[in-house]
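Pair request: fold both.
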Amino acid sequence: MEETPDCLSPPPHAIILPNLAPKTPNIEAFLTSISATQTAPPLKLKTAVDDLRQGFLSWRIWLALGYQDIRLRYRRSQLGPFWITLSTAIMIYSMGFVYAKLFKVDLSSYYPYLAAGLVVWTFISSLILESTETFIENSGFIRQTSLPFSIYILRLLTRNFIILLHNILPVLPILIYYKITPSFLSLAYLIFGFVLLLLIAYSYGLLLAIMGSRFRDIKPIIASVVQICFLLTPILWQHKMLSERMQHWTVFNPFYQLVELLRAPFLGQVPAPSTILYCLCLAGFGLGLMLIVLAKSRHRIAFWV
């Protein structure tokens, strides 16, 4: 074997410089990175849609959790959930006579209007206020399990829907006494209104839950806004009490449209087409916005709670 001459080997004190020649760009890796960047948003959106789909398919879980919330709230109570009915009845029957005298209106038209409006408003306001703490209250489940986040909103809807069924009972004697009999068409609109209202509550409830887990000051802010909207919405007072000019402005109040979506069928009437169109647009906008926000923040919710 021939040995390498000493003149060809580098001296021991020589410094070997790196190869500074420009490298040829890897076109395949560049194209792969571009395609991965372009497909990232659809993958996040698909994950959000899968979360909603898995939540609906897990109906046994959120139905059981919602029913358990009612049982735990009223355990060791003699009347149980019917305390809800009793407190709602006292509020409706006492406020009806007082405000009818204050506004000097006919009790036969004002009493059912007030009763139905208060029940629907209680349902809507409870959903709004409780949505802001939904993920915080379920932080134990979120940190320890991999359940879809939409399950916790569906649990909230189940619990409040059961409470709503109890709150409707005091309204029935008023409707019977004043001989208000809903027609088949108004009952159909009542079912449609319930489904549409639950869809709106589902969309915006998930939005509020995400915002409430990220920003803890959301709940007191929302609570103050809800109190102001209660006074600005025709619930204690009738829409026809305002002047014609002011009546046009109340149409833009979303709470008025949501309350009227269920109150009109309760009183045997049909909701106005503008009310139905307004609520449909509200549901579509909320569902789209909720998907975008859930897709961008879903992987952070577990760290926020």
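--- second member of the pair ---
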Amino acid sequence: MRVIVTGAAGFLGGRVASMLAADPRVSAVTGLDRASPPTGAPFQGIVADIARFTELAPMADVVIHAAAITSQVSEADPELAFAINVEGMRAVLRWARMQAVPPRVLLLSSIAVFGRGDIVATEDTQPEPRSTYGTTKLIAERLLLDATRRGEADGVILRLPVSIIRTATRTAPPGAGFVSDLIDAALRGRPFTAPLAPDHAIPVASVEASLGLAMRAGLEAVPGRVLHVPSLAGSADSARAALAACGIATTGIACAPDPAVERLVAGWPARLGTVYPGFSAGLVDPGLEPIILDHSTRIGVPLATAPA
């Protein structure tokens, strides 16, 4: 099986590409990104803008489409958001029409397609985006579903919650991904201010859960065209409670709601659910505590209390 990963220099795209390269079902992995892949990456890289996908992408059986402009950048630059998030999807679909057999095209989408304020959103919940990012992601979803209807692609949409714990160096104040920053700061004994009210929950899941389901949705038979990564409801309060259960002090954690972040996540569900629980079996996070334990081990900070 030959696989192409777009956004392969990004956090999730790069890790998916590396996992695919180690999978015995996969014979070749090509990563396409406008940035070079990390040195020593176990896959072939094509350094190009997503707009050139049609002319540069090799023949393949599967595309995992992870290239996207993030929420905060989309709000600041909607033209760029449409150029990458929508036109990028169209470029992949033009390529798909050229293949002898309709390829599996997995779009990594987002909770941002929701905006009605549901407590739990499943695959049956009606999307209603309230941000530029969510709008572009929903358009990409509809383009893929239409190409699938036309027999031009074997399309699958996987909606992701906020992945934790991500600790890349920030170039802007924390936004929707603040739960990662909060947990990392508490483990390192640093102060942190969350940009939402203490009880404002957003969907979060471990990076491992999201990657595991992306692998399944890309390479295996699926129960539906639209799938969710089931999530936890992550808030400053729930993160502080989980940290306390692990023996980590949270006295340096405060909350100061940021109107810009509040607008960005307005209407998001508190968590993602699924109508296909069997598909995510074995990959659903049981709670925040195991995620905290994994991260503490990764950064070399022992926990005073092991999570139950």
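Observation on the second member. Residues 163 and 207 are 5 Å apart (CA to CA).
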